[in-house]
Amino acid sequence: MIKVFYGKKGTGKTKHMLESANSVAKETNGAVVYIDDSNELLVKLSHKIRFINILDYPVFGSDAFLGFICGVVSQNYDIETIFIDGLTYIVHQDVESLKKFFDGIAKISAEHNADFYISINGDEETMPSFIRAYT
Questions:
Q1: Could you give the CA distance from residue 26 to residue 17 in angstroms, rounded to a whole number?
Q2: How far apart are CA 56 and CA 74, in angstroms?
Q3: Measuring CA to CA, which residue among 84, 80, 64 is closest to residue 4?
């Protein structure tokens, strides 16, 4: 399953992601991972959640980030849910260029039974169709 929270900055996407992550962590027996580009949320997340600050790793672009996610999933088969907060900030690419990334995430989700929650800043009226299916 892939769920995308899409909207303009300041519309509560991160708050909703944080609440969802803590809720999932309470209910699951598997591992939960939260990927962000700052440590700001670290103290607000459950201690059961594996927090990754992507800036601690030399990951540039959506292809490298997809490879990073493959590495995370392959090192721990118990991962059930991955939260990615601020995808376009992490990969430094426009949302329109992320079709291949979403195809890869869909494959990982299907083959490894992992759920993805992803927040993206953008205008809902110009949201690409390949993302609309996940909102």
A1: 14
A2: 19
A3: 84
Q: What is the CA radius of gyration of the chain?
A: 14
**pLDDT higher than 90, residue 9:** no
- For the cut 90, the answer to whether the pLDDT of residue 132 exceeds it is yes
Residue where the block lists tokens 């962590």? 25
Q: Which long-range contacts (CB under 8 A, 24 or more apart) does 8-17 make?
A: 8/121, 8/122, 8/123, 8/124, 9/121, 13/85, 13/119, 13/120, 13/121, 14/41, 14/85, 14/86, 14/119, 16/119, 17/83, 17/85, 17/117, 17/119
Q: Are 23 and 29 in contact (CB under 8 A)?
A: no
Q: What is the mean pLDDT of residues 65-88?
A: 95
Give CA–CA dist 75/9, Å, rounded. 33
- All structural domains of the chain, each given as residue ranges with its CATH number in brackets, are 2-132 (3.40.50.300)
pLDDT of residue 45: 95
Give the DSSP letter of residue 64.
H
- Segment 23-31 mean pLDDT: 94
pTM: 0.94
What pLDDT score was predicted for residue 12?
Answer: 87
